[in-house]
Design a protein that fits this description.
The protein has 262 residues and is of the alpha/beta class. The chain is built from 6 helices and 15 strands. Strand 3 and strand 4 form a beta hairpin. Helix 1 packs parallel to helix 3.
């Protein structure tokens, strides 16, 4: 975790140098363990986590909000919570979202991953909140495959929807870009997807390709799929004027008289 914190702090400095108004980091930025038991044993409450404390300190030092995926212990001590927190520019944790949809898959010729073995599922969609960039709605990784939460966030006023992720390579090649663009187009919102990249251990490798997508579905910034010596950031302008123009010129009027409102 100390190494990961060092990498994240380096990205804070890069973001500040680039003039960014916020930094979005991937899912599970604190660690990705090789087993369910290690995932649980490494989790710490945000109040005592050196990783979280380090990012809170950096956020305050540089007046830079940070959105970061972490692990928290579940109450029973047998699982963790896959959590996304928003640290404001004073270093305070202001928002917390816990992943709704857990990644339980068995890919022929690929990894067998059962997130539910070690992760407690979240139970609610967190209302979008105001930031210097606009109204942000938070989702995580496998939530990307379900349009309902993002549509709910849009209905509640989101301008930006986050999908910090650690996608597998096979599913990333097949679906990552398509799903991100679809969520952006159907919500007419910016999508920001900070992604883990490269090998974590002998069992896990992540696809990478961090991406920012416009409300029109344009990929306005993207990183690669290879781990570099130094971690990278992608930077893009969030143009709320363009977003409003798209929403005005192509209104998506839902037929809630025919199907339920989400």
């Amino acid at each position: 975790m100390a190494h990961n914190l060092s990498q994240c702090r380096f990205l804070v400095q890069k973001a500040v140098a680039a003039g960014a108004k916020a930094l979005f980091l991937p899912e599970a930025s604190d660690y990705i363990a090789p087993s369910a038991s290690e995932t649980v044993s490494l989790a710490q409450p945000t109040s005592t986590s050196p990783f979280v404390a380090g990012l809170q300190s950096s956020a305050k030092e540089y007046n830079l909000p940070i959105n970061v995926g972490i692990h928290e212990p579940a109450k029973d001590g047998k699982k963790v919570k896959n959590t996304l927190i928003w640290i404001d520019d004073q270093g305070e944790i202001k928002q917390r979202y816990r992943k709704l949809h857990l990644f339980d898959v068995d890919i022929p010729g690929g990894p067998v991953l059962k997130e539910s073995n070690s992760v407690e599922k979240g139970m609610k969609i967190v209302e979008p909140f105001e930031t210097a960039l606009g109204s942000v709605g938070m989702l995580i990784c496998f939530d990307l495959r379900f349009p309902e939460p993002s549509l709910s966030l849009r209905r509640q006023g989101a301008h930006i929807i986050t999908y910090p992720s650690a996608f597998t390579v096979p599913t990333g090649i097949a679906h990552w870009s398509t799903l991100l663009r679809a969520r952006a187009i159907e919500t007419q919102s910016y999508v920001i997807a900070a992604a883990q990249v490269g090998s974590h251990n002998e069992k896990r490798t992540s696809y990478g390709h961090s991406m920012i997508v416009s409300p029109w579905g344009d990929v306005v910034a993207e990183l690669g799929g290879e781990k570099k010596v130094e971690p990278e950031i992608a930077v893009a302008d969030i143009d709320l004027g363009r977003m409003e123009k798209i929403r005005k010129e192509m209104p998506l009027l839902r037929r809630t008289d025919v199907y339920p409102e989400i």
